[in-house]
Amino acid sequence: MPIPLGLGLPQMKQYDLGRDVADVARAAEAVGYESLWVFERVLFPEPATQGLYGVPGLAWPDQYRSVTDPLVTLTLAAAATGRARLGTSILVAPLHVPFQLARSLASLDVASGGRVIAGLGTGWSLDEYAAASVAPFEKRGAVLDELLDVCAAVWGPDPVSYKGDLTTIAPAEVGPKPARPIPVFLPANSLRATRRLVDRADGWMPVAMGASQLAEQWQRVRDVAAERGRDRPVGVCARANARYSAEPLGSRDRKPFHGSVAQIVEDLVAHAATGVPEFILDLQGTTRDAAELIGVATAVYEAARAAGV
């Protein structure tokens, strides 16, 4: 049976927010993509305090100079579609007031008829933390834990009551409530993060950077789940940050999901063989406009299905 495929929505500076998000969302749903996704970047530091992903010397991509707000983008997609699930991959938890984010996600879930997936994480950019975080970078894990607590409280039955380091909710009615329990997905970049994922989340959200690496990571997550006695399956949705090229790239040092449509699909087939059940393809970074993004996304989807993925 074909695996579900998701598509990253256009958020970067070459796209028109008011026009392109709805157009791409409708086209992706019509082709067969089962989910639509957004990511979060709030600024482009010049000069940067640190390299991309915290890697010294790694340049930030030029497209990050302007990235649309993830929840605004997802709301536009929700209004333009009726079936596709709507996910965040990911929201940087410490850049949001927990109570307000929990309410925004619940409202979007109600408005979309129960289609929201909350992918949450802690981020890595010191510059973003300096500009927008609710707590210092060193407390990022504690902020994510509190956000998970607040979401559980706000999305649960009234009266809602909670006391944490950042949030105090006196007994109150808080609505609207989600249309159904919103699935929460987390990364697992350390043992502590993996334990949080196993204990508190519905699923895991890795980045697909090589089939063998993904298989090893997936096995580690399952091992921790077994050790901690988790009695329900761990969902998985792997993000593939693709870089499209009209011509095939040479095999020497080609990175996964970089290249032509055929090469991207070849990598998808290899990664799907790991047993990971769902993938997000983010193709927006190297397509010039919405028309090209729709064309490439359609070609990738059709070729993937022809390849049995």
From TrEMBL:
Transmembrane spans: none
UniProt domain Luciferase-like: residue ranges: 19-238
InterPro entries membership: Diverse_substr_monoxygenases, Lucif-like_OxRdtase_Rv2161c, Luciferase-like_dom, Luciferase-like_sf
Matching Pfam families: Bac_luciferase (PF00296)
Gene3D superfamilies per record: Luciferase-like domain (3.20.20.30)
Protein name (record): LLM class F420-dependent oxidoreductase
Taxonomic lineage from the root: Bacteria, Bacillati, Actinomycetota, Actinomycetes, Kitasatosporales
